[in-house]
Amino acid sequence: MHRITAHILLVVLLLTTSPIFALPPDTTPVPGGIAIIKLPADIDPASARYRDRKVLITNKDSENTAVIGLSLGTKPGRHHLDAKTVQGKPLTIAFSVNAKDYEEQRITIKDKRKVNPEKRDMERIIREKKSINTALEHWSDQDNVVVTFRRPVDGETSSPFGLRRFFNDQPRKPHSGLDIAAPEGTPIMAPAPGTIINTGDYFFNGNTVFIDHGQGLVTMYCHMNTIDVAPGARVETGDVIGKIGMTGRVTGPHLHWGVSLNDARVDPMLFLPARESSKP
């Protein structure tokens, strides 16, 4: 088996009218981040796997590049992408994941059932978790996946990605999305072309929409007031999918925006152009 140490690309940001591959220049692999790996010319891109999952492959200037999502639970250290050459020989591409510390956030929730659900709530939560996981694990074969997003709503970033959270002083899972505060009723727009996978009203997430952008890249929108799209609908960048609300577990009107890549929740800021990701 061949072994190649991958060079993590520092991708130059290309601000074009319809960008396909224009990730920000600082993409050092960390938990909750992404690894960008240029693939050797003899690799069959369809064979690329990370932890037994297919990964997103972009093609620019006739070069294939793997864009790998790294969950917040990813351990720092040596990782590898498995693939095969076009001749069918196995190949391993090694890369390193660096450590990253995220800040702590403490939130007071008035509805105690949203912190310590009752038995009847847990039955609903378990049922809904299956539906949510199915959407976030979704894969569709698609060429030319757009990986440069526009911000889905204008507003202040109220909670960044990765925060170590405490609800009513009780530890909970790290924040797996980006919270954007805005007045109730503010339109929420699709950040890139895609297809609506599913919608629903969930115990914690409230009114929620999932968009499939292709090759395991899925975005999630929670706590909405209204949902203005239906499963199966095709959306383009800027199309309104619903409005800001405060459904589910919230302390005020805002959008929880999540990005899932190869079923790993990653920082949405990584998919925004520099001028967008620098907003508060």
Key structural traits:
Glucose Permease (Domain IIA); 2 domains; Immunoglobulin-like
In short:
With about 280 residues, this protein is mainly beta. It has two domains: about 1-95, Immunoglobulin-like, CATH 2.60.40.1590; about 105-275, Distorted Sandwich (Glucose Permease (Domain IIA)). It is built from two helices and 21 strands.
Element layout with pairings:
Layout (H helix, E strand, L loop, with lengths): L1 E4 L28 E5 L10 E2 L2 E2 L1 E5 L2 E7 L7 E8 L5 E8 L6 E4 L11 H18 L19 E4 L4 E4 L2 E2 L6 E4 L5 E3 L4 E9 L3 E9 L2 E11 L6 E2 L4 E5 L9 E8 L2 E3 L7 H4 L3
Parallel strand pairs: 1-8, 9-11
Antiparallel strand pairs: 2-6, 3-4, 5-6, 7-8, 10-13, 11-12, 13-20, 14-19, 15-16, 15-18, 16-17, 17-19, 17-20, 20-21
Descriptive report:
Residues 1-21 have low confidence and may be disordered. The radius of gyration is 19 Å and the shape is globular. Helices cover 8% and strands 39% of the residues. The chain folds into 2 domains: 2-97, Peptidoglycan hydrolase domains (Immunoglobulin-like), CATH 2.60.40; 104-277, Glucose Permease (Domain IIA) (Distorted Sandwich). Strands 10, 13, 14, 15, 16, 17, 18, 19, 20 and 21 form a 10-stranded antiparallel β-sheet that branches. Strands 1-8-7 form a 3-stranded mixed β-sheet, with no helix packed on it. It has a 3-stranded antiparallel β-sheet with strand order 2-6-5, with no helix packed on it. The protein has helices spanning 119-136, 274-277; strands at 2-5, 34-38, 49-50, 53-54, 56-60, 63-69, 77-84, 90-97, 104-107, 156-159, 164-167, 170-171, 178-181, 187-189, 194-202, 206-214, 217-227, 234-235, 240-244, 254-261, 264-266.
